[in-house]
Each structure stands twice: as structure tokens, then as C-alpha cells.
């Protein structure tokens, strides 16, 4: 049954109520004459990072400072990801290691939130095996952090707040962003695609779009604060707006965002190939602020595997769309995601993924070995290839792609690119780094006064993962 908009939007009174808890927490620590420090760790995608920026925003308003180590913290919070087993194992490992710290420092508060917690058996495992974890909440209760934290501070009991829900939209929460030049803006949450290997639809709920006015308000605010670039986020941005009272497509939203003065670059992710359409291509080509960059996850090169993945496009339609967008936007930077070792994948299927990489010549790829996610349809399938073969295939894939990436990057040597300087190099104080319009990372000599400016850079050297250049 379709939920009404009212059921999706968290009423503003509830957000205000959280702000009251924020003030209570602040007073609590002032009363004790301590400045509490929080250590936040984020796993997973940009949406999760954006969620952490909200967690940080609430904590900052409650008087928290932030630190980079568990040892110094009064509150440790893991915002978790459930996409692959590897990400989950890291969280278990980290939590296990905190047992001793908590024994030494009983007033330390340890919390776990995010996508992992939306899987019942996982949350239950944490509850039972990690009694030193005080705070457990999921993606649908993120905005309630102040209330939950206040409860823990007062009762010294652990607090678990999990909700089995199709998900909400919480507007006007505080936010404290990581960068000062480019900002993430989530335009929608959840996913309805149910690719057969993927856990996201189960842990993030149904697709729901923020109101365009709310998004534009946020982008205008960012422009006022001096941000130059926004990255619009959604699991499948092409579905944006389908659930709004007055339906508005993603291309229309992009056009409106282009109208915000001060924002000079707009990127977005992720586009699902089945929904990547001509209207969006035309908008990308027509709007100078939309960067000539596209992340279009293909996952596999074989139609049999694509069908088993429930991706609902074919190799041929994917290649057609790539050819079309490249003809409309010459010089487009194209990246993708690949899964190696999907259960039904045979050697012949894998060979087709390799041939697709050679045919398309992506600028770079994000490749993953299939990870069985319990509750998804693919988890019930028998594996065709052995672990050993899958790992060998994974290495072959990287070899093929690294060559291509390097060749493409080499072709940038001698060219002049417009680079938005995003920050100082971590290793060299005389170096800054930024991105080309296509999204390639460039390192160059320069001082911090360059940060936030667009500069023309002559590319002098190339590696597989980045470029080096001189500001002209
Ligand atoms: N919504 C985005 C992807 C989000 S997850 C999209 O549809 O493109 C990011 C990537 O993780 C996916 O593109 C996929 O390549 C990978 N992934 C998802 N589930 C996985 C699994 N069970 N095992 C391995 N990789 C997976
Ligand atoms: Fe997962 Fe598919 Fe949704 Fe992407 S589109 S989040 S891969 S179900
Ligand atoms: Fe992971 Fe959740 Fe993102 S499962 S990839 S953090 S939506």
C-alpha cells in the first residue's frame, strides 16, 4: 500500500523535541564541567557519510568536540554498512577490541547505528555478545540520537531503538560537514530495485524523495556558506520525484539546482542503467554546471548474469546508452561497479565482463567479490565457481582495468584542465589537491589560499589513480 506523504515526513515537532534533548545533554556536560569528545567511525557509501554528518551536527550542538582516537573519546559511535561481509567483520572486530577500554573507563558510551542494525539477527548478536555496547539504533531512528543518548546518560542502562519500517524523511536536522568546498546532499533515501544480491532495500527501506524546496534550500545555504560543488546522492537518482505529490523528474531537479548562484559544479550518484534516459543525457549536455562525469554501475558483462541479478537491462542496452552519452558529451569520465563471482557466474560469463571492460574502457572501476547477504534471493543460489577461481578472476579484472586507467590518465599529460581545489595534501604542506571536471584527482603545488578556487592546471604526470600538474 502506498504510504501518504504525511506518514513519510517526520513531523517538525519531533525534530524540535530532539533539539530539546540536545540542550539537556549540553547542560548535563556543562554541569559536570567537561567538554565531551566523540569519536565517529563511518563505513559504507556516501549516503552513510552524509548521515554521519548529521550525527556530528547533533553532537556538536550538544557541546561535543571530536577526536580521532577511541582512547580519547567519551562517546564512540560506529555508523555501519551491511553491503558486504567484510564491512561487517570490521565492526565486530572493532567492538570486540573496545571491551577492555570500557572496563578501564566505565563512563565511556559506545554506540552502533546504521545499516547493519537494520538486520534483526545482527542487532541481536550485538546485543547479546557485546554487552559493553550502550546504544543501538538503526537507519530509521538516526534522528533520535539526542533522545537515546540522554536516556543512556540518565539511566546508565543500554538503549536499543530499532524500527522495522519503510523509512522516513527527517528535515532540518543539524549538520556538521566534513569538507568546506564540496558537499553531499541526499536527495532521496531507500531503494526499490531489489537487485538479487543487494541488502540495501532491506536496510534502507522504500524509495522516498525529499521535497525539491527542501533540497534547494539546503543547496542555497551551502552556496551562502561558500561551498562550490554539490554531490546529489541517492541509490538510484533516476527514480527521484516519483513519490512526490507533484511528480518532478531528476533532470528537472538538476536544472533547478543549476540555478543556484555560487554553486559551480554539480555531480550525482548513483544512476541505475535501466533508468538512465535521454532526458537526463540532454540535461547533462546542456547544463555547464553539471560535471562531465558519470558513474553507471554495470555489475557484469553477461546477459545471463545481469538477468539473475535482476538488473533489468542487457549488455547491449548498456553499451547503447554509453555510446549515446559519449557522443553527446565528448571527454566524459565514465566509472562503474563490477561484482565478480555472482553465484551463477561461469568462466564464459566472466570473460564477457572482461570484454565489456575492454570495449567500454572505463576511466576507473570499483570492483567487489560477491558477498552472500542473508535474506537476499542470491544468497539461496549455489556457487558455480570456486573461491580460488573467483579470486583469480578478480585479480585478472584489476590487471585489465589498471592498464586501461593508466593509459587513459597518461593521455591527460600535457593537457590543461580546470581543477576545483578542495584541500591541502595530507603529506606535503606545499601541495593542494582537487578534481578535474571529470572527477579525476589532481595534486599540485600551491598554498591553502587556493582552496575553494577553480584553477587552470597543466597536467605533467599521471598514475593509475591520480594526476599531477602545475597551476598556470
Ligand atoms: N545503488 C547503487 C549501488 C549501491 S551499493 C547502484 O545500484 O549502483 C555499491 C556497490 O556495491 C554496487 O554497485 C555493487 O557493485 C556492490 N555490491 C552490492 N551488493 C553486493 C554484494 N552482495 N556483494 C558484492 N558487492 C555488492
Ligand atoms: Fe542495491 Fe540495486 Fe538498489 Fe543499487 S539499485 S542499492 S545495487 S538494490
Ligand atoms: Fe552500506 Fe548502507 Fe550504504 S549497506 S553501502 S551504508 S546504504
TrEMBL record:
The record's remark on the cofactor is: Binds 2 [4Fe-4S] clusters. One cluster is coordinated with 3 cysteines and an exchangeable S-adenosyl-L-methionine.
The entry's [4Fe-4S] cluster 1-binding residues are 45, 81, 115
Domain called Radical SAM core: residue spans: 177-407
Q: Does the keyword Transmembrane helix apply?
A: no
Q: What class of enzyme is it?
A: transferase
Q: Does the keyword RNA-binding apply?
A: no
Q: MTTase N-terminal domain location, by residue?
A: 36-154
- GO CC list: cytosol
Reaction catalysed by this enzyme: N(6)-dimethylallyladenosine(37) in tRNA + (sulfur carrier)-SH + AH2 + 2 S-adenosyl-L-methionine = 2-methylsulfanyl-N(6)-dimethylallyladenosine(37) in tRNA + (sulfur carrier)-H + 5'-deoxyadenosine + L-methionine + A + S-adenosyl-L-homocysteine + 2 H(+)
**Sequence positions that bind [4Fe-4S] cluster 2:** 191, 195, 198
Identify the EC number(s). 2.8.4.3
Compartments it resides in: Cytoplasm
The subunit structure is: Monomer.
Family named by the database record: Belongs to the methylthiotransferase family. MiaB subfamily.
How is this protein named in the record?
A: tRNA-2-methylthio-N(6)-dimethylallyladenosine synthase
Which species does this protein come from? Candidatus Aphodoplasma excrementigallinarum
Q: Which gene encodes it?
A: miaB
Amino acid at each position: 500500500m502506498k504510504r501518504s506523504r504525511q506518514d513519510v515526513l517526520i513531523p517538525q515537532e519531533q525534530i524540535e523535541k530532539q533539539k530539546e534533548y540536545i540542550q539537556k545533554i549540553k547542560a548535563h556536560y556543562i554541569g559536570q564541567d567537561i567538554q565531551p569528545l566523540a569519536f565517529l567511525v563511518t563505513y559504507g557509501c556516501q549516503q552513510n557519510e552524509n548521515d554521519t554528518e548529521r550525527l556530528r551536527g547533533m553532537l556538536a550542538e550538544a557541546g561535543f568536540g571530536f577526536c580521532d582516537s577511541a582512547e580519547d573519546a567519551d562517546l564512540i559511535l560506529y555508523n555501519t554498512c551491511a553491503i558486504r561481509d567484510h564491512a561487517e567483520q570490521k565492526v565486530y572486530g572493532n567492538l570486540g577490541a573496545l571491551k577492555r577500554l570500557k572496563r578501564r573507563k566505565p563512563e565511556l558510551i559506545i554506540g552502533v547505528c546504521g545499516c547493519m542494525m537494520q538486520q534483526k539477527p545482527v542487532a541481536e548478536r550485538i546485543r547479546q555478545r557485546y554487552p559493553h555496547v550502550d546504544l543501538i539504533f538503526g537507519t530509521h531512528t538516526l534522528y533520535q540520537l539526542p533522545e537515546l543518548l540522554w536516556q543512556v546518560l540518565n539511566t546508565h542502562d543500554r538503549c536499543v531503538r530499532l524500527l522495522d519500517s519503510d523509512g522516513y524523511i527527517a528535515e532540518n536536522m543539524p549538520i556538521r560537514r566534513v569538507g568546506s568546498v564540496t558537499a553531499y546532499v541526499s536527495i532521496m533515501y531507500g531503494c526499490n530495485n531489489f537487485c538479487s544480491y543487494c541488502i540495501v532495500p532491506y536496510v534502507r527501506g522504500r524509495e522516498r524523495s525529499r521535497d525539491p524546496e527542501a533540497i534547494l534550500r539546503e543547496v542555497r545555504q551551502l552556496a551562502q556558506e561558500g561551498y562550490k560543488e554539490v554531490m546529489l546522492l541517492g541509490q538510484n537518482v533516476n527514480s527521484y520525484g516519483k513519490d512526490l505529490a507533484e511528480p518532478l523528474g531528476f533532470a528537472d531537479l538538476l536544472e533547478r539546482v543549476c540555478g543556484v548562484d555560487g554553486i559551480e559544479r554539480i555531480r550525482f550518484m548513483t544512476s541505475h542503467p535501466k533508468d538512465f534516459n535521454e532526458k537526463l543525457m540532454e540535461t547533462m549536455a546542456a547544463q555547464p554546471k553539471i560535471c562531465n562525469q558519470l558513474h553507471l554501475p554495470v555489475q557484469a558483462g553477461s546477459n545471463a548474469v545481469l538477468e539473475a541479478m535482476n538488473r533489468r537491462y542487457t549488455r547491449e542496452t548498456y553499451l547503447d546508452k554509453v555510446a549515446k552519452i559519449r557522443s553527446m558529451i565528448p571527454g566524459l569520465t565514465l566509472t562503474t561497479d563490477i561484482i565478480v563471482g555472482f553465484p551463477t557466474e561461469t568462466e564464459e560469463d566472466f570473460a564477457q565482463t572482461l570484454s565489456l571492460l575492454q570495449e567500454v574502457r572505463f576511466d576507473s572501476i570499483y570492483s567487489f567479490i560477491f558477498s552472500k547477504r542473508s535474506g537476499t534471493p542470491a544468497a539461496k543460489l549455489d556457487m558455480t565457481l570456486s573461491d580460488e577461481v573467483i579470486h583469480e578472476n578478480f585479480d585478472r579484472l584489476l590487471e585489465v582495468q589498471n592498464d586501461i586507467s593508466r593509459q587513459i590518465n597518461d593521455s591527460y599529460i600535457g593537457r590543461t584542465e580546470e581543477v576545483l581545489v578542495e584541500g591541502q595534501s595530507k603529506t606535503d604542506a606545499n601541495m593542494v589537491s582537487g578534481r578535474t571536471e571529470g572527477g579525476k584527482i589532481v595534486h599540485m603545488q600551491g598554498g591553502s589560499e587556493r582552496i575553494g578556487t577553480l584553477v587552470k592546471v597543466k597536467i605533467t604526470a599521471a598514475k593509475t589513480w591520480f594526476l599531477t600538474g602545475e597551476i598556470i
